[in-house]
UniProtKB/TrEMBL annotation:
PANTHER family: OTU DOMAIN CONTAINING PROTEIN, OTU DOMAIN-CONTAINING PROTEIN 3. One of its GO terms (biological process) is protein deubiquitination. Residues 288-304 have a biased composition (Basic residues). This is Cysteine proteinase. Pfam families: OTU. Residues 22-177 form the OTU domain. The lineage of its organism: Eukaryota, Fungi, Dikarya, Ascomycota, Pezizomycotina.
Amino acid sequence: MAPRARRSNSPEEFPFLKNLGLMAVKTKGDGNCLFYSFSDQVHGDPSQAREIRQQVVQYMRDHPEDFKPFINVEIGGGSRRNPKRKNVAAATVILVYTPPTQEQVDAAWEAHLDRMSRNGTYGDHIEIRAFTKAFDVDVKIYNRSNSYYIKAEETGTRPVIHIAHHDWEHYSSVRNIAGPLTGPPNIEVIDAETAGAKTKSDQAPYIADWMIKNVISSLPFLANDATIRKALTDNGGNVDRAVNQLLDEPSSTPSTPDGYLSSQSGNSSIERDVDSDDEDELWGPNKRQNRKVRAIKPMKRRSKGLTPSPLKKCMSANLPDMDEMEVLFI
């Protein structure tokens, strides 16, 4: 087996494990990682890895009928008949399987036991199975998204050994995130219902501040952070889709916060008349046309007994007296 790449353990590598309140502890990757993990689980530290290896190999040697059928025998395992035609791509490949002889199986089995007894030889599922039998335990193996058992027997209850299998072909011992980190692991797993709820919450997309700012700058109206964050969450963190959702549902956005307009106007000393009925006309998109007709407002106010606001007086100071004039709309 080829040497495994050395990489550091990261909690993010095992989200399923993390949601159970567990973690893969750092385990040396020198070919003995599986047996280090077993030793940490059984004895509370990796110091007994060599002894556990020898016990596992001895159990396999004493019970060959349980393991020999799973050994890969390459000699006589098959051959390919080369096509004679020049057009190799169009040729039919014929595989001829020649089963290995009993002598070849026995030789491969002895070679496997010899390799496995040496320090630094990587173990795998055959050795895990032998470990469960030799120590009368069940082994629970965690990977990135799930877990499974290799049991000593299909029935009965036994102690459970917890190990993690990394994507980069490495095994680690498993412990609780809350500890203990030394001594017997005393594994306590969060119940499945709680873990399932936590997994669902952890699947929500990460919403960064820059995403919220991009949405704000793309909207023609104001929306608070909570509304924007919900839109981003609904769309998996996609800024464009979140903007489109908010544009399609403008009624769902909050109204302009109090004081926003005054804060945007700087230090201007001129305030709008809060009871003015032409505010939208003066400040709206048709303000040029509205300026032409706003002169009739004082007439209407006089007829109603109202006094024009200071702002309107200022803006109409240079206009002629329109009491005696007809208004010409241009």
